[in-house]
């Protein structure tokens, strides 16, 4: 439990800093006229690239294969991206909610989902795996 709390704390620091900067950039570039789904897409890609190293090395202290972890990280964040895009499409484009509010809520919801995926799949400890498990994605 202590390990999980430490991981959650470090993940939270990486996430808060990354998402605070990303959200301010999102507000700025949408206020400057960029469409909200395009802005989210661009900033999402930047966020994935910048947080992988911090989360691998610091948040989860994962010493496993870089390539496998990065492939899983990209899959996890692709799932998060499509959930985020669907939320913007449904809640903003169809139901008329403010994109600023929807995106702010999505940051929090996806952070929880992505922590779980990173802890138990992307950066899982090889010592906790069964002896006959493969290294499949």
Would you kindly provide a written description of the structure presented here, covering whatever features stand out?
- By secondary structure, the chain is mainly alpha-helical.
- The protein has one domain.
- The chain is 78% helix and 0% strand.
- The chain contains four helices and no strands.
- It has helices at 2-31, 36-59, 66-94, 99-122.
- Helix 1 (2-31) runs antiparallel to helix 2 (36-59) and helix 3 runs antiparallel to helix 4.
Write the layout of secondary structure elements.
Layout: H1 2-31, H2 36-59, H3 66-94, H4 99-122
Helix pairs in contact: 1-2, 1-4, 2-3, 3-4
Features:
single chain, elongated, mainly alpha, 78% helix, 137 residues
Low-confidence stretches: none
- How many domains is the backbone divided into? 1
Q: Report the count of strand segments.
A: 0
End-to-end distance, in Å?
Answer: 26 Å
**Main sheet summary:** none
Mean pLDDT: 90
Number of helices: 4
Please compute the radius of gyration using only Cα atoms: 16 Å
Report the portion of residues in β strands.
Answer: under 5%
Query: Structural class, from secondary structure content?
Result: mainly alpha
What gross morphology would you assign? elongated
Tell me roughly what share of residues is in helical segments.
Answer: over 70%
**Helix and strand run:** HHHH
């Amino acid at each position: 439990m202590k390990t999980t709390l430490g991981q959650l704390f470090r993940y939270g620091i990486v996430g808060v800093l990354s998402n605070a900067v990303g959200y301010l950039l999102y507000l700025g570039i949408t206020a400057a006229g960029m469409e909200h789904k395009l802005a989210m897409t661009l900033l999402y890609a930047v966020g994935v690239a910048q947080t992988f190293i911090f989360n691998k090395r610091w948040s989860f202290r994962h010493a496993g294969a870089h390539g496998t972890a990065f492939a899983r990280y990209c899959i996890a964040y692709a799932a998060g991206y499509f959930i985020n895009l669907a939320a913007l499409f449904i809640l903003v484009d169809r139901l008329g909610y403010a994109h600023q509010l929807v995106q702010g809520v999505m940051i929090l919801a996806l952070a929880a989902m992505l922590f779980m995926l990173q802890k138990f799949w992307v950066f899982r400890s090889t010592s906790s795996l069964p002896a006959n498990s493969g290294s499949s994605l």
